[in-house]
Amino acid sequence: MTHKKNKRVVVAMSGGVDSSVAAALLVEQGYEVIGMMMRLWSEPGIGSQAPVNRCCTPDQMADARRIADLLDIPFYVVDTQKYFRRTIVQFFIDEHALGRTPNPCIECNRQIRFNWLLNQALALEADFLATGHYARVHHTETGYQLLKGVDEDKDQSYVLHMLTQEQLAHVLFPVGEYTKSAVRELAVRFGLPVASKQESQDLCFLGDGDYRRFLRQYSPEASRPGPILDLNGQELGQHEGLAFYTIGQRKGLGIAVNEPVYVLRKDVQRNALIVGPRTALGQRTLYARDVNWIAGNPPEASIRAAVKIRYKARPMLATITVTGNGRIRADFDQPVYGITPGQAAVFYNNDICLGGGIITNPQPDSTNTSNNARSTQTP
Amino acid sequence: MERKRIYLDHGASTPVHPEVVAAMAPYWNEIYGNSSSVHEYGRLAQRALENARQTIADLLHAQPKEIVFTGCGSESDNLALRGVMMAARVSGRGNHLITSAIEHSAVLKTAEQLRDLYGFDLTVLPVDEYGQVQLSDLKTAVRPDTVLISIMAANNEIGTLQPIEEIGRFARAHNILFHTDAIQAIATRTWNMHDLPIDLLSIAPHKFYGPKGIGILYVRQGINLIPTLTGGSHEEGRRAGTANVPLAVGSAKALQLAMAELTTRNQHYQQLRDHLITGILNSFPADCQLTGHPVERLPHNASFAFRHVNGNDLLMHLDMAGIAASSGSACKVGDPKPSAVLEAIGLGPEWTKGGLRLTVGTQNTREEIDYTIHTLQRIIPKLQALETTTA
Predict the structure, then answer these.
(1) Residues 6+ apart with CB under 8 A from B224
(2) What value of ipTM does the predicted structure carry?
(3) Which of B209, B228, B260 finishes a domain?
(4) Measured between alpha carbons, how far is A100 from A102 in angstroms, rounded to an integer?
(5) CB contact under 8 A, B386 and A82
(6) Predicted TM-score of the model (pTM)
(7) Which residue of A82, B10, B18, B342 is most buried, as measured by CB atoms within 10 A?
């Protein structure tokens, strides 16, 4: 593979084992590798120290810098604080205010990693941006495919479903070809002092990890108390704020009823939490907006696919119908529990990730699709 | 791998001159005694130390007793400010010190600590658009209890020279001590400390092809300093700690070379500097400005501000092109702040993150400068595009 000698790769490093091994593999494969870490926004004023995003603490930076030095590659920390605050953190606040349950990691991949950082890499005359994600990119005659990581347990294709052909042409996932345990062994073989580090953090920008407190402070409208209603509209109690509940939640509702009730949906207009029996939680139809088809175009007819409704959910068989304007409808073979607006629905054909979109249930058309945060810029 | 590497960061540090390396060589494992020891080993070390002191004193037209060796330039600044102010407190002579907004943090942070933790009064003087302190501002700031004025000889970021002789004469007329941080300026001019109205002067040999790990503080005879590093009676009780003989010898050699080659070095620097300034300003007529004084500036310093450019990213792109530079706003942990110096000279927010300092040295060539100008022409528009799409 001598051609790699002339290829430059920016690898997004976190100081953790996955991105460190990714960098080491690329060096071994003969790429010209540049280590880069993003300084992300963190909530100020929590704790006595300067705000530190939990994805890029001084310790993690020092680790990443040390690993880059071991690999004899340059390492830079780039400032993404303002842009991250304006996009991802605002998106998190806004989505909760709209009664949805957002996945900020997906949004971060969409707007920060594979847009902002990819553009940084391309400006630095890199051919590729590499990350430590467990997923694979295959180049076929008809274009690029996104595949699950070899390690099914660690597969992260769910949070990468928004990648376009243009992006996939410039993206490498070196550890996607390995299992997590193989990656740990590689870390040992490369002499990287990272084998037992913790994984990166969800909601990395929260000063104290408490998203409820954060939303009370930054999104008062999402934390307004209101009624808990049953399916007949009868009030069963009070909720503390719609943002603090998730679809399918049973415990912690603070109401006394004869049979167990579950959170079914959030009625933002009435600021009401709608609850009901488990049977009412099952849904056979899922609607999604802003659907990305990794192949570049939606399928011409309905397709059969396995659909994941959360990062850790089991894929469920469904028939997917393109309804136009970036939307789809998925009809499941069996009822699916806990379909949550704001989360992503991601479609698979075996190992191939076909694409995905943002769930709008129970309506086919959610209130607004033109989220200002959704202006993905192709590099 | 053959990659172009161009070092344009001599304001940060310089390579040690081969003659300096040679001069230091015997003092690692041949003449290694402690200069305080009474035996022959000690005497030989002491001879080397005092010869170095004498050489430095001669080059500065000072007395050997006026030369104090410290651990670095920052320590020299610390000793000057803290030593003078604490001595003033002990003798009840005054409580006020004056410095400028664009001092190196070794001076500013020390002054702020003296104010915040020790109750001294501090006046921080503004500077004009070129970064120069106005004598009129100084006159207004002076009080009957002013003990010390500390104004740098040349700014480390934008290279502006301060009117230190005027300031020194003014200080002397008011019976106020005058310290100048000459760390950037020392090897770019001659110093006659006998005649100059300067009472304390900070020096860092690694800025002029000498070693790191040593600093020098000139202290005019008769000035009492409270030591900041207490212990043995080294350096006439002004700085405790075993004398660093090899580095003192290296410092003397480096200063000797600097003064012997002063004219040729300065001519070389100025040619390259002016080529940089002309080439870069012509490349970006609207989006770049020279920072600092156009004439009264260090001969080896070319500093700029670029509109809508992030200095961190600029340094990264230059590094990838093999060019080593620095920026007043850059930060290794990705949290760049607007440059305080660029703010102090009145630049707006679209400029203050885009500082670039290029400091040339004896080994730079005109071809390297040409390459640097071409590289900037290539990367600045890309950086502006990145910055404006995500600002």
Answers:
(1) B87, B91
(2) 0.87
(3) B260
(4) 6
(5) no
(6) 0.90
(7) B342
| Known catalytic membership, residue B331 | yes
Confidence of residue B391 (pLDDT cuts 50, 70, 90): low
Biggest CA-to-CA distance, chain A: 71
Q: What's the domain range around B102?
A: 18-260
Q: Which residue has the higher pLDDT, A99 or A348?
A: A348
Chain B residue with Cα closest to A59: B333
pLDDT at A366: 47
Query: Quick one: B205 and B352 in the same domain?
Result: no
CATH number for the domain including B344?
Answer: 3.90.1150.10
In chain A, residues with a C-beta closer than 8 Å to the C-beta of B390 are 82-83, 116
Size of chain B in residues: 391
CB B37 within 8 A of CB B247: no
**Number of inter-chain CB pairs under 8 A, A vs B:** 51
Please tell me the distance in Å from B144's CA to the nearest CA on chain A. 40
- CATH number (domain holding residue A355): 2.40.30.10
pLDDT tens digits for range A331-367: 999 999 999 999 999 999 999 999 999 999 888 864 4
Give the residue from chain B lying closest to A121, CA to CA: B317
Q: Which amino acid is at B207?
A: K
Q: What is the CATH number of the domain that holds A166?
A: 3.40.50.620
Which of these, A213, A263, A266, lies nearest to A242 by C-alpha position?
A266
Taking CA–CA distances from A60, the nearest residue in chain B reads: B333
**Inter-chain contact B389–A377, Cβ cutoff 8 Å?**
yes
pLDDT band for position A373 (cuts 50, 70, 90): very low
Same domain, B94 and B236: yes
Report the catalytic residues of A.
108, 204
Of B105, B331, B381, B388, which one is the catalytic site residue?
B331
Nearest CB partner across the interface for B386, out of A34, A39, A123: A123
Q: Is the distance from CB of B303 to CB of B358 less than 8 angstroms?
A: yes
Answer whether residue B126 is part of any domain.
yes
CB distance A123–B317 less than 8 Å? yes
Q: At what angle do helices B262-283 and B366-390 cross, to 10 degrees?
A: 40
CB nearest A77 (choices: B332, B389, B391): B332
Strands in B96-100's sheet, in edge-to-edge order, are B67-70, B215-219, B200-203, B177-181, B146-150, B96-100, B121-125
On whether any CB of chain B is under 8 Å from the CB of A39, the answer is: yes
A82-96 pLDDT per residue, tens: 999 999 999 999 999
Residue B377 lies in a domain: yes
B234 to chain A nearest CA, in Å?
37
pLDDT over threshold 50, residue B244 = yes
Based on the fold, state whether residues B323 and B344 are members of the same structural domain.
Answer: yes
Answer whether A112 touches B (CB < 8 Å).
no
User: Is the link from the previous residue into A174 a cis peptide, with omega within 30 of 0?
Assistant: no
Shortest CB distance from A77 goes to which of B334, B382, B383? B334
* CB contacts, 8 Å: A61 with chain B: 333-334
Mean pLDDT, chain B, integer: 96
B176-210: pLDDT as tens digits: 999 999 999 999 999 999 999 999 999 999 999 99
